[in-house]
Amino acid sequence: MTKKNYILEQKCRICSSKNLNLILDLGEQPPANSFIDKNELNSSESKFPLRLFWCGDCYLVQLLDIVDKEFLFKNYFYMTSASKPIVDHFKKYAQDVYVEFLKEEKNPFVVEIGSNDGSLLSEFKKLGTQILGIEPATNLSNLANQSNITTKNTFFSSQVCKEIIKSRNATVVVANNVIAHVEDLQDLMHGIQILLDKNGVFIFEVPYLVDLIKKLEFDTIYHEHLSYFSILPLLKLVEQFGLEIFDIRKQSVHGGTLRIFVSKKNNFPINDSVKIFIDNEYSLGLDKIEFYQKFSTNITKLKKNLIELLLRLKNENKSIFGYGASAKGNVLLNFCSIDNQILEYIVDTTTIKHGKFTPGTHISVISPEKILERGKDDIALLLAWNYQDEILEKEKLFRQRGGKFLIPIPQPELL
Ligand code: TYD
């Protein structure tokens, strides 16, 4: 492991407690999106511990092994516009937010944290809203600006907010699948407090910890995702900044997501959903370490079952390839030591990944056309399980020719 670009955090990201308990160890892993080129196959790769901790005081589940964000995000290959289900989700999202919080405002202003290629903001713009994106990846922020989605190429911070409010405050601040990436949650919330108008609303979407645990989505744990949120710790975070959660709505994208609504205190009636989520989290035992220990035991069993099944299929002379060179796939492959001896290659629709090799496990990534030659006695390990329905529908012919999909979680299953 290279120590460069890495620190081990010593205290909880929300409440600063040192009562931090190790609940899952996924071993040393390369950053999950760091695909490598052929000429790098013989060089050593940077690997960092990937361990999940639970704070016994505010109950935040988090990584403490922090890989430098410049190293992880400066050039980012995840593009919102490349994923049709997400584009559809954003269209509806913008319309809903507009009707509820912007329509009645004279000159509404929406700021997005981690605005990626501007997909969501472009929907707000179509609705006649003034917009501003904050995006640290230079390649993405350039793309957004080229399509007239005004974007600042920087990490979000309270300092940036002080600059923005010189012109005006925000009616709505949105952040989707980005809060989990933020190292300094205190500064983020301080920024929100500064940036929001008196009656402004901060709306963010995060994957829900309860879904991750129930569905054993352990492969969504990787260095980019520093926090794994439930409601109990979020309540503690927002209240430190005079903010409150006034509504929580469940979304089906990304295997279980929450849309959370935050405002300055006493501005909106608190919806019943907030109490329902809190009560449910206590009754599930999110405040007790046993809940997380059971999750860890289940992951160990899952790993054993998946490896045994793959070896059995190999012994039966089946040939196995991967479907979807996702970041989560890389976590699963590294954790279960599934390398190029087991998977022939991985097919993926993302052209920039073609010709590259998976980090740590060195499996080549190729274009999905290859699947046209596959069928009988072939197994496709589905590494992009979040798109199971779309992919199974798209690859009907592969199954009709006798091919099978192996779905790895929550239990290995052949379809
Ligand atoms: P993604 O859902 O973006 O997850 P992660 O954040 O874990 O990387 O990854 C899905 C990957 O699967 C992405 O590289 C695109 C690929 N993919 C296909 O190859 N075919 C498909 O039909 C779909 C929907 C995705």
Topology of this structure?
Elements (H helix, E strand, L loop, with lengths): L5 E3 L11 E10 L18 E8 L5 E2 L2 E3 L1 H5 L10 H19 L6 E5 L5 H8 L3 E5 L3 H9 L4 E2 L5 H7 L5 E7 L8 H11 E12 L1 H6 L12 E2 L2 H9 L3 E9 L5 E8 L7 H13 L4 H27 L3 E5 L3 H9 L10 E2 L17 E2 L11 E5 L5 H7 L1 H5 L3 E4 L5 E2 L1
Parallel strand pairs: 6-7, 6-9, 7-8, 9-10, 14-15, 14-17, 15-16, 17-18
Antiparallel strand pairs: 1-5, 2-3, 3-4, 4-11, 10-13, 12-13, 18-19
The chain binds thymidine-5'-diphosphate.
Thymidine-5'-diphosphate (TYD) binds next to helix 11 and helix 12.
Give a short overview:
With 415 residues, the chain is of the alpha/beta class. Helices cover 33% and strands 23% of the residues.
Using brief descriptors, characterize the structure shown:
single chain, 415 residues, alpha/beta, seven-stranded mixed sheet, six-stranded mixed sheet, globular, binds thymidine-5'-diphosphate
In words, what does this structure look like?
This protein has helices spanning 69-73, 84-102, 119-126, 138-146, 158-164, 185-195, 209-214, 231-239, 272-284, 289-315, 327-335, 388-394, 396-400, and strands at residues 6-8, 20-29, 48-55, 61-62, 65-67, 109-113, 130-134, 151-152, 170-176, 196-207, 227-228, 243-251, 257-264, 319-323, 346-347, 365-366, 378-382, 404-407, 413-414. The chain has 415 residues and is α/β, with parallel strands linked by helices. The chain has a seven-stranded mixed beta sheet with strand order 8-7-6-9-10-13-12, with helices on both faces. It has a six-stranded mixed beta sheet with strand order 16-15-14-17-18-19. Helix 2 crosses helix 3 (119-126) and helix 5 (158-164) runs parallel beside helix 6 (185-195). It is globular. The model has no long low-confidence stretch (mean pLDDT 94). Bound molecules: thymidine-5'-diphosphate (TYD). Thymidine-5'-diphosphate binds at residues 78, 324-328, 348-350, 368, 384, 386-387, 390-391, 394.
